Amino acid sequence: MKKSRHSIEDKAAQLLETLSIQSIPVPIDKIAKALGASVHYTPLDEELSGMIYIKDDVPIIGVNSLHHLNRQRFTVAHEIAHLQLHREHITQAVHVDKRFADAMLRRDGRSATGTQGLEIEANQFAAALLVPRHQLEQLLEGVDLDLEDEEALEGVARRFKVSKATLQYRIRNLGNELFPTRRRTTRTAVSTNT
Fold first, then answer.
1. Domain tally, the chain
2. In which domain, by residue range, is 26 found?
3. Is 126 part of any domain?
């Protein structure tokens, strides 16, 4: 059954609240450990971002150690999403994710079908987990952010330890909920101090 963006958002926020995580960057490995998952970083084929399976009731997350740190963090968050949202699917077989981060922003015929729906949900959860709405709102309070300003976006993304694409995806998903009375195309400097 397809989950709504709001229910996915709520599940990610609830997980952060349950674990008393309020700061950024979100300690994604700590979350995996708190959920009883074992995370293993190992070199994999370039096209393989990660995988998750359950062995002896222990979730095992495999992450491609050859990928950029931001991508590794997204991979762990994405696999946590499968654990939280799709556990019934991963208990039956190893769930392998190939290049999901690159496909995250695409909307095509494949994205609306079967496992692609699960991948979209996992991407939404991962983005919500790594870029929590409340922390993003606080960071951008009083700031009009231009989504085309590469430097400003990179600065904000660094604060969350995510890729610029993940940050853009998150901001676009929140849309008017994040900026209810402001236009998102006004240029304003964003502090990138950590």
1. 1
2. 5-131
3. yes
pTM value? 0.81
Q: What are phi and psi of 191, to 5 degrees?
A: -65, 130
Instruction: Give the CA distances from residue 81 to residues 49, 64, 155, 181, 183, in Å, rounded to whole numbers and listed in that order.
Output: 14, 17, 26, 31, 31
Two structure tokens written together for 38: 């074992």
**Would you call the peptide bond into 132 cis, given omega within 30 degrees of 0 as the criterion?**
no
pLDDT mean over 62-77: 96
Task: With respect to residue 71, please indicate whether it lies within any of the assigned structural domains.
Answer: yes
Which of 24-38, 40-54, 139-153 bottoms out in mean pLDDT, i.e. has the lowest?
A: 139-153
173 within some domain: no
Residue 125, C-beta contacts closer than 8 angstroms, at least 6 positions apart = 8, 11, 12, 77, 78, 80, 81, 84, 85
SS (H, E, C) 30-65: HHHHHCCCEEEEECCCCCEEEEEEEECCEEEEEEEC
